[in-house]
Amino acid sequence: MKKIGLLGGTFDPPHMGHLIIAEYVRDTLELDEIWFIPTYEPPHKQASAISVSHRQHMLELATADHEHFKMNTIELERMGKSYTMDTVSTLVEQYPSYEFYFLIGADMVAYLPKWYQIEELVKLVKFVGVKRSGYTLETAFPVQIIDVPAIDISSTFIRERAAAGKSIRYLVPKDVYSFIKEHGLYE
Fold first, then answer.
1. Are strands 143-146 and 33-38 parallel, antiparallel or unpaired?
2. Is residue 71 part of a domain?
3. C-alpha closest to that of 5 among 19, 29, 16, 97
4. CATH code for the domain in which residue 31 is found
5. pLDDT of residue 82
6. Is residue 8 part of a domain?
7. What is the pLDDT of residue 40?
């Protein structure tokens, strides 16, 4: 049975924190792969100002050199708002012999009671929570906590720095940095 970690998000842009979290969880839980799932339009956030194709391409660049990192475009293909329940139930149907682990930050652990069909979702996937500064990892739902080095980087922080004309070098992978600069994103 393959063990697959799922890491969803807008990846606007994908950054070193995403990759470090994915690698630590993959290594700790001995997962076969981490599937990065870019969302078309998240139900809990404002739509991205950057095109879906730019976000998808940046994620391809960010994960290209890791044999265990894959991108799954299920939510991009669905278009519109995507709920985790819809995505996970489709993946479980498509890959019935796989075991899925859904990676979430501490900010999302606190938000779990508000997730769409959370009671059914916890029956389909194992939640893995990673620490994030300023948040606790307490919840009534089954969440396996993984200790990951504190990486206090967010896509919002990166966008704000870029918009202010400050460097984002070393916050994002080298190829993502080049793509952002080449296309004048977030300025």
1. unpaired
2. yes
3. 29
4. 3.40.50.620
5. 84
6. yes
7. 84
Encode pLDDT of 48-84 as tens digits: 678 999 999 999 999 999 999 999 999 999 877 888 9
Residue with tokens 């470090």: 20
For residue 148, what pLDDT band results from cuts at 50, 70 and 90? confident
**Residue 82 one-letter amino acid:** S
At residue 186's C-alpha, the angle toward residues 181 and 187, to 5°, is: 75
Whether 185 maps to a domain, the answer reads no
**Separation CA 90–CA 96 (nearest Å):** 10
Whole-number average pLDDT of the chain: 90
**In-domain check, residue 187:** no
H/E stretch holding 90: helix 84-94
DSSP 3-state of 167: coil
Read off the tokens for 45.
């956030």
CB 68 within 8 A of CB 95: no
Model confidence at 132, pLDDT cuts 50, 70, 90, reads: low
